[in-house]
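Progress report, Aim 2. The chain analyzed during this reporting quarter is listed below.
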Amino acid sequence: MKRGLILMATAVLVAGCGSGGSGGSGDGDGQPGSSQQGQKPAKVTLEWWHLSTAEPLKSLWAQRAKDFEAAHPNVTIKATVLENDAYKAKLTTVTQSGKAPDVFVTWGGGVLKQQIEAGLVKDVSGDVAPVLDTFTPAALSAYQFDGKTYGLPTDIGLVGFWYNKRLFTKAGISAPPATWAEFLDDVKKLKAGGVTPIALAGKEKWPGHYYWAYLAMRIAGLPALTQAGVDHDFTKPDFVAAGQQVKALADLQPFQKGFLGAGYGTPDGQAATVSNGKAAMELMGQWAPAVQKDSGKGLGDDLGFFPFPAVEGGKGSIGDAFGGGNGLSVGADAPTEAVEFVTFMTQMDQHTKAVEAGGVLPVLKGEESAVKDANLKQVATLLAGSSGYQLYLDQAYPPAVGQQVNDSVAELIAGTKTPEQIGQDISEVAKSE
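Predicted structure tokens for the chain:
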């Protein structure tokens, strides 16, 4: 999500995207960011791309940039802040042209690996070696490949159901469902009670892929998803069964009116629909409460959380988590100050402020006590005790494959493709990569 990993860049570029330090950070001795005796450090403009458009991170990250500038008078940080789909589209366009921002948000996984192989991302292993032990292994894993580190995490979490307790009670539901069969029954109860069961941002597609991904995890198991990344075969019976269960849900017509054209964080989108009490739940990452508050009225004490249910007879465990987090990577041509900024953003005294504000979950050892919100504590507890972890499929697999997963699941939910057809379509793209 998450996910929650925004088009003209608002950044002022020194010599094109990703070149914030080229020509701007040298100071006459050939070493970027250093200064000769008696000289002030050369002025540097860092281009920083992120997607924290909602509070509290929107203001927190802006303040962190100001704090860094205050400590580094020669540095100016120009932030480009975009929502999820716009961010992914803009970053894809820029990286395909052979460039990268100086500092940018990444979800890690297959997308980051492809950027690394294209020579767009700096290997920061040596620079961050002194602080690596301060991070939890789960949070760090998405940004490490072949023993090298290409980014540092700022958030980690999992996708689950955020629900309106009052609407559940109204429909006669006394406790969240533990199994998929119970979940489908609860959807029927909510509809019978005049309540829209689920809000979905159908226009943006990525929220819909969570359903198929989780069902594939529960039915086929985590190893099957890993194997599919190797043999490029998404037509196996368990994947078809996952699609059939997505179709079974869609056939109940559980989503809000106009969901196929709905965005995620817009005033009339998925988060706002739940936040304003117009739908009982959404399947979303750990950032959901913050986006709900930012885009709608907010549910307050009526907001609850439950993990994605188990599927009877499935090979996967209900303890297996699906999700991800945000991290910061550095462009290959970025000045040394870019790496300094990333380490600054992930220092305990800086990062814990974001945890305390409810904007992110712990990525540093010892931050757990800073989680104050009861729902987020539940997420953190589930994450800490998870039996396995699967990164978002649109990030775990190469970009083209991830996009096809999103597109195909959207077609399945819309009723224009069958479970068998989407498996074939995803396989076809995977084999061409």
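The chain has a mean pLDDT of 90. The chain has 18 helices and 13 strands. These observations will guide the mutagenesis work planned for the next reporting period.
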